């Protein structure tokens, strides 16, 4: 079968060194693409064999599921295809079409994978944010309960203050009435006070006049006192003289007797 295969190959490829494990692959290749090696350039059979082995490896790589081909294998496949079509002269349009399709699919997969990773990252971030918000929500809920209790307490205290305020309001009304009455009474007293003030001014003026008059009278009194003292002294002197005269007269009468 190997001899038969080599006879069916193009003249430039009949002296290839083909391994038994490669027979089926080579047979299938020439059956599907009989003219791919028509324009092969190398003349050396070892070089031709090397290129054939490279082509078979490339075909084997591209026959793998696209998702299992690594980026390195895909990059090497492009380089190998360029070498096989350029240096070796193989006609591999069909293989280039397949490689382009795989590359396009990989790009889509990479794009989809990138989008998936992006979405997964967004989902992860959203979950983390959601958990954070849940924690905040629990804390906020506790705060709300605390605030509601505080509001309830304040309402109760407000109602209590309103009751006390009503009592205070009644007291205020009473005190305001008392204050009004006191103001009226004060105004009356002020009226009286003004009258008393006028009387006081008048009395003070009278008192001042009396003091002046008293001082004048005191001056007169001092003069009169001096006169009285003088008169009393004169009277005393006269009485003394009178007594002397009486004594003299008594003595005279006694002497006459």
TrEMBL record:
InterPro entries assigned to the protein according to its UniProt record, in alphabetical order: MCC
Coiled coil: 116-220
Regions of compositional bias (Basic residues) in chain numbering: 241-257
Keywords: Coiled coil
Region feature (Disordered): 234-257
PANTHER family (alphabetical): MATH DOMAIN-CONTAINING PROTEIN, TRAF-LIKE SUPERFAMILY PROTEIN
Record protein name field: MATH domain-containing protein
Organism of derivation: Microthlaspi erraticum
Classification of source organism: Eukaryota, Viridiplantae, Streptophyta, Embryophyta, Tracheophyta
């Amino acid at each position: 079968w190997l001899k038969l295969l080599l006879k069916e190959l193009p003249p430039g490829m009949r002296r290839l060194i083909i391994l038994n494990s490669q027979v089926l692959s080579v047979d299938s290749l020439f059956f599907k693409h009989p003219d791919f090696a028509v324009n092969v350039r190398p003349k050396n059979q070892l070089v031709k064999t090397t290129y054939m082995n490279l082509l078979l490896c490339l075909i084997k790589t591209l026959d793998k599921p696209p998702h299992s081909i690594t980026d390195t294998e895909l990059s090497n496949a492009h380089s190998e295809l360029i070498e096989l079509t350029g240096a070796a002269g193989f006609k591999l349009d069909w293989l280039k079409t397949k490689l382009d399709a795989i590359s396009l699919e990989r790009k889509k997969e990479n794009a989809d994978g990138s989008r998936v990773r992006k979405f997964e990252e967004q989902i992860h971030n959203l979950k983390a944010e959601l958990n954070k918000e849940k924690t905040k929500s629990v804390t906020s809920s506790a705060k709300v309960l605390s605030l509601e209790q505080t509001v309830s307490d304040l309402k109760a205290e407000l109602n209590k203050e309103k009751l006390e305020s009503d009592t205070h309001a009644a007291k205020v009304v009473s005190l305001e009435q008392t204050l009004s009455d006191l103001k009226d009474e004060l105004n009356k007293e002020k009226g009286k006070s003004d009258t008393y003030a006028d009387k006081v001014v008048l009395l003070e003026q009278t008192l001042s006049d009396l003091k002046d008059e008293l001082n004048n009278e005191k001056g007169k009194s001092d003069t009169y006192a001096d006169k009285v003292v003088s008169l009393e002294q004169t009277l005393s002197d006269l009485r003394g003289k009178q007594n002397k005269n009486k004594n003299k007269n008594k003595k005279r009468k006694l002497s006459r007797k």
